[in-house]
Amino acid sequence: MPLFIKFFKALNANQYPGQIALSFVLGMILGLTPLLFAHNLLIVLLIFLLRVNVSAVLVSFAFFTALAYLFDPLFDRFGYWLLTLESLQPLWTHFYNQTFWQVLSFNNTVVIGSVVFSLLISLPAFVAFLWLVRQYRHRFMAWAQRFKLVRMLQGAEGANVLGGMLK
Fold it and tell me: pLDDT tens digit string along 20-65?
């Protein structure tokens, strides 16, 4: 539950919407691709290097991991199609003969299918998540601010912060 509280605090904070949208995209890539493969080290490195909201990454990761189980047969077919394309055979042969590419397991149909798919949808997903965050802030936050309970909770949180600073 504290993860969701941090997540909603991030949505309501003055953080740039692009940071939250990027958090969702990185969590999406982690969730859609098989977790224990080397390509995810790059994603984890990006999470640590970029200013992204880790709670948003984790919420997105949990959601897309559940979704990935439904899409695994499609990723398998897509990966098989990519690996058997006649025009890409020299590329795959070259990659397979290099140690670096063998470590990345791109000869696995589910791995290549899910990685290529998640990379292809990353930019459209970023734009969609950016729009959703902005819509949430514009519509839902304005609607929620009308309630006295929400304003009281925000005031109580501010009082807790002030009280902690005075100690």
Answer: 899 999 999 999 998 888 888 999 999 999 888 888 899 899 999 9
Backbone angles phi, psi at 53, to 5 degrees: -90, 115
With 0-12 / 13-18 / 19 or more C-beta atoms within 10 angstroms meaning exposed / middle / buried, residue 89 is exposed
Q: Is the dihedral of CA 99, 100, 104, 108 positive or negative?
A: negative
> Is 70's pLDDT higher than 50?
yes
Using alpha carbons, select from 116, 133, 122 the residue that is nearest to residue 78.
Answer: 116
CA distances (Å), origin 146, targets 26, 124, 133, 138: 33, 33, 20, 13
pLDDT in tens, 126-136: 999 999 988 88
Task: Give the span between the Cα atoms of 11 and 156, in whole angstroms.
Answer: 19
Q: Residue 91, exposed/middle/buried by CB under 10 A (0-12, 13-18, 19+)?
A: exposed
Say which residue the tokens 């897509």 belong to: 78
